[in-house]
């Protein structure tokens, strides 16, 4: 794409600084003012007064909001979630066991020693295969559909409202994406929890999945879907909205250099910092539902009231929380780095960094 190309998109998505936006004066003499071509999209956001957001997109290999763009986002999400969740499988094993049997696995140290004694080092890798498959599928839908929904909702409300209510756009887009993503994750999550918390249940995915289907039917794979939505939807809404706003604040308040002038390593470093901060908030808000998911998937025929009685109301909010904060913070930061690295490799800008409140509207230029 040439440097003169433009993309009509909501200003808060990928612009980094208001200096990217310049007001073009009406051309009175074509020899003095040469109109710059705009690549319009079918769903381009144009305000009622004829103005539009025009963002330069130099050196792109992938056209913004093209099928290839959403494919890149989908692949980035698949890699970021699949690899990171699999990498923290040992921590996940400890966390799940502390949630399921708090009397046996009293704390992190106790859970670690008990797992080593009873299962050896191999016990820390239990459930890695359903984790890899399940969270790869979830990440593909989560990130790919988020980018699509964010653009779709922005076009519906128009650029002015999209900038004004940007956080609501982030929340609505992430919630919509997560509803679908959890349907893809749920069966693998059911297998993962059983394998990790019931050592004699199955070796892994190959025998664990058929065993659940034989004993409980296909419905057994989805009995944790509602609690999973209860955990993941607030988690993802917090994850994306906090990340987008945190990155914007970092570029606005912490880093004196405009985003487009920062090196790629610096931008990816900002992605990690924003992701880690977002992960802390995610862990806290979604932790009670995470305890529920682990309990229900581990106990056949158990109900929510059974979980509350067993863990206690305070335990629902605190059991395994410090470990989960560390795990989710690191995991979320790494996810955004991987995701944005894929976007950078595709020639796309990293996520976040816009400041719509200070962004100037550029009038559309006619040819």
TrEMBL record:
Record-linked Gene3D superfamilies: Mitochondrial carrier domain
Name of the protein described by the UniProt record: Mitochondrial phosphate transporter
Subcellular location(s) per record: Mitochondrion inner membrane
Family according to the record: Belongs to the mitochondrial carrier (TC 2.A.29) family.
Name of one Pfam family that matches: Mito_carr
Highest classification ranks of the organism: Eukaryota, Viridiplantae, Streptophyta, Embryophyta, Tracheophyta
Membrane topology: Multi-pass membrane protein
Keyword annotations: Membrane, Mitochondrion, Mitochondrion inner membrane, Repeat, Transmembrane, Transmembrane helix, Transport
Solcar repeat start and end residues: 68-152, 165-249, 266-345
């Amino acid at each position: 794409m040439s440097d003169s190309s433009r993309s009509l998109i909501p200003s808060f998505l990928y612009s980094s600084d208001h200096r990217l936006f310049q007001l073009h004066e009406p051309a009175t003499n074509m020899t003095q003012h040469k109109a710059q071509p705009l690549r319009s999209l079918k769903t381009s956001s144009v305000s009622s007064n004829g103005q539009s957001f025009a963002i330069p997109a130099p050196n792109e290999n992938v056209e913004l909001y093209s099928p290839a763009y959403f494919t890149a986002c989908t692949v980035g999400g698949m890699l970021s979630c699949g690899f990171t969740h699999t990498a923290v499988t040992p921590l996940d094993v400890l966390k799940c066991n502390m949630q399921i049997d708090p009397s046996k696995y009293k704390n992190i140290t106790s859970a670690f020693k008990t797992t080593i004694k009873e299962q050896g080092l191999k016990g820390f890798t239990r459930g890695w295969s359903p984790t890899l498959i399940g969270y790869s599928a979830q990440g593909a839908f989560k990130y790919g559909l988020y980018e699509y929904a964010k653009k779709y909702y922005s076009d519906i409300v128009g650029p002015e409202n999209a900038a004004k209510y940007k956080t609501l756009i982030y929340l609505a887009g992430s919630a919509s994406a997560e509803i679908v993503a959890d349907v893809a994750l749920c069966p693998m999550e059911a297998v993962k929890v059983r394998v990790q918390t019931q050592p004699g249940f199955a070796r892994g995915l190959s025998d664990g999945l058929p065993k659940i289907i034989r004993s409980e039917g296909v419905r057994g794979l989805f009995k944790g879907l509602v609690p999973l939505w209860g955990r993941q939807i607030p988690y993802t809404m917090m994850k994306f909205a906090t990340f987008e706003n945190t990155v914007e604040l970092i570029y606005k308040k912490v880093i004196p250099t405009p985003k487009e002038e920062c090196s790629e390593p610096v931008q990816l470093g900002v992605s990690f910092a924003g992701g880690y901060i977002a992960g802390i908030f995610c862990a806290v808000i979604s932790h009670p539902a995470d305890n529920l998911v682990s309990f229900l998937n581990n106990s056949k025929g158990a109900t929510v009231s059974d979980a509350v009685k067993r863990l206690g109301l305070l335990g629902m909010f605190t059991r395994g929380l410090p470990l989960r904060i560390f795990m989710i913070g690191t995991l979320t930061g790494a996810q955004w780095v991987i995701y944005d690295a894929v976007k950078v490799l595709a020639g796309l800008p990293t996520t976040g960094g816009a400041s719509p409140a200070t962004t100037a509207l550029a009038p559309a230029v006619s040819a």
